[in-house]
Amino acid sequence: MNEHEIFEAVVSFTLFSYTKLQALNLAENLRKLMYSDTAREDLRKQEIIIVEVMPTNIRSIQSKDNDKFMVGFDMRLRLRDPYGDDIPEMDSIEFNET
Q1: Residues 6 or more apart from 51 whose CB is under 8 A from it?
Q2: Which residue among 5, 10, 11, 23 is buried most deeply as judged by most CB within 10 Å?
Q3: Element housing 67 (H / E)
Q4: CB atoms < 10 A from the CB of 23, how many?
């Protein structure tokens, strides 16, 4: 990567609940929050741009023993490499065996 290069990454958000409806509501509320001006401005100050907020989907594994539900969504973010070529080098590594 070049110094302070811009790149994109996908971040997954998964919310858990004991009811399917509550898990859906939690995920959808968080997803809507990402569209707010406040959230976008706060992220922009950190040089993070929301490129895409993908649809909410159910991520639970169907099982008769399943007592919780997972619902989530993914976000594509545009980021700037904060380190560039300024990453310090390590001279040595010590291992302690227990």
Answers
A1: 8, 75, 76, 77, 78
A2: 23
A3: none
A4: 23
- Per residue in 13-70, pLDDT tens? 999 998 889 999 999 999 999 989 999 999 999 999 999 999 999 988 776 776 789 9
**For 53, what's the count of Cα atoms within 13 Å in the CB-facing half-sphere?**
17
1 pLDDT higher than 70: no
Q: For tokens 């594509």, what's the residue?
A: 76
Pairing relation of β-strands 49-53 and 6-17? unpaired
Q: Is 85 helix (H, G, I), strand (E, B) or coil?
A: coil
User: How far, in Å, are 19, 21, 60, 69, 73 from residue 66 at the CA level?
Assistant: 11, 15, 8, 8, 20
Q: Long-range contacts: 22-27, Cβ < 8 Å, 24+?
A: 22/69, 23/60, 23/68, 23/69, 23/70, 23/71, 24/56, 24/58, 24/71, 26/71, 27/56, 27/71, 27/72, 27/73
